[in-house]
Design brief:
Number of strands: 0
Shape: elongated
Helix content: over 70%
Structural class: mainly alpha
Length: 94
């Protein structure tokens, strides 16, 4: 990065920082603390909602997996039963 680009980026950063400082500095400390507390409460609520959604989806997928495994086992048992039946019939002919 050449020197001109560095100083241009630095100037933009300084201007943005100054703008943010002017917007938030005049506000009283009580107000700032209330905003932070409200933001943390909102973030906590969103986190809990997301955790509940994930838990619900995990439970749903777990039940689907259990049903799929059960169907697979039933299919294997049925296939083994048929194979055993066929094998015993073939053994009877020998």
């Amino acid at each position: 990065m050449d020197t001109w680009k560095f100083w241009a980026a630095f100037g933009v950063g300084v201007a943005a920082g100054a703008a943010v400082a002017l917007l938030y500095a005049p506000q009283a400390g009580d107000r700032t603390r209330k905003q932070i507390k409200r933001g943390l409460n909102d973030a906590t609520d969103r986190f809990q909602d997301t955790a509940e959604d994930i838990s619900s989806k995990a439970e749903q997928y777990s039940k689907q997996a259990e049903r799929a495994i059960r169907r697979g086992r039933e299919a294997v048992d049925e296939t083994l039963s048929k194979a055993s039946s066929v094998a015993s019939k073939v053994a009877g002919f020998v």
